[in-house]
Structure formats: C-alpha cells, structure tokens
Amino acid sequence: MATYAIGDLQGCYEPLMRLLDKLRFDPAADTLWLAGDLVNRGKHSLETLRFVRSLGNAAVAVLGNHDISLLAAFHGIRKPHKSLKPLTEAPDYPELIQWLAQRPIMHTDPMLGYALCHAGIPPQWDLATAQRCAREVEQMFTSPLVATWLPLVYGDQPDVWDALLPTIDRQRYILNAFTRMRYCRPDGSLDFDAKGHPREYAQTASKKMKLIPWFLHPNRKPLGVTVLFGHWSTLGYYSENQVIALDTGCVWGGQLSAIRIDTNNPKPLYVECTDYG
Fold this sequence. Notes:
The protein is α/β, with parallel strands linked by helices. It is built from 8 helices and 13 strands.
C-alpha cells in the first residue's frame, strides 16, 4: 500500500496516465492525493474528472481555484474556459459537478504527517484554525445557497485575516488563502498579483512592499505537519521549511510531478507534459 501526492493536473489526462504507470499505481491498494486544479487549459478535463471520480476512495482531491471557477461556470456566474467545452457539453456534466462540489478544501492526515491544500495555509493560522476555516467554506459548495454565495466570495479583499470579519468577508479570505495565495507582505497581508519565482521579488526596494512566500513569513505559526500544495508553477518543486510544492507546470509544457508520502525522505518522480497547447 502506497500513498502518492501529485501536483496540478489541469486537464492533462495523458501525462497523468503515464505518471501512474511509472508509479505502478494500484487503485485497489494505493491512494492518490491531488493538489487541486484538476481541470482547465489542458486538452482533457472531461477525461481527467471522470477518471479521478472513478477512483472513489482511492483518490483525495482538494479544490483549486480553477475547479472553483468551473463550479461557478456551472451556476452561470463565470464563463468557462474554452478548453472545458467537451466537459460542459458532456451528458454526465451535472454528475461530475456534483462530485466536484463535494471535494474538500483541505485534507489532513496526522498519521502520515501531511496536510494537503491547493495554494497553502496563511502564516497566521495554526492547524486547528486552518481545519476549522476549511470546513466553514466546504459546506457552502454543497449548500442550496451556493449559486448566490459564489458571486459574493469573488474578490481580493479583505487581504488581512481577522476571525471577527463579517461572514462573507471571512469566507472570501479563507477561499482566497487556500486556493490563490502565493505571497504575503511583511504585515501578513496577502498579495494576489505576483506569480513569479521568489528570486524576482527578493530585492524589492521598499521593505513595506516586499513580498515573502507565505511559507517563509517570519511570523508563520507551526502546524505540526508538512503542507503539500500546488498552484505555483513558477516556483516548481520545492521541499523545505515544512512544505512541499508540487506544481511543476505540466500544462505550460513542464512536467507532472509525484512523491510517495508514506515513506521517509520522499523524492519526486516526473513525466513530461504533452497535453497542452
């Protein structure tokens, strides 16, 4: 029995199949942890969703920002990306959406010592806070109010955490933190514009505007687990400071990455991406 964690799929079905062959993945015995963004931009989002859904309990997939955009498109809130047309026209589209809406925002396994989310965990949160916040927004995706709730949680503000924020503002921050975060400012506020590698921002002139990867913020609270995340293709594979970044840019012509997390000192395995363009 093995447990593998894989970075953003983004509809790249064929590289996923080659990676699973390389891992000798057996769904009857093994488990996949998927870091979100199952769909979008790649050529085969429909096949990817169908496959992950078919794995049942052998797959743990968290929601990424592109998955949430697909849910919003289903409810008529956003226009779906052009790559999603085969999915949105498929006869099982509603069933796939229902399944997707039931995916968690965060998954934690204390025995393995890992937490999985798409973008990360804000430095102000301890593990209990992160788990509580994840549960708060997860229930909204399966609520009868989801179609009226989703438009309210799009936006970049607030960018500073406060547990006493009004409900919608708090949930907007939570969703952004889990699915869009890359950088913080020195005061802990979130930046949603910068997408480059940290070396691009390391020499920022103004200390006030200096950008810090969320996992390197000096006031980051200890979590007691290693955080697995995706979302940051320009960062690439990164394994330090109690985090492992798994998005290696498959849909951008890079690679699809996996690690085995039920062993000590996991090492990445890669396959090249051929499912883009």
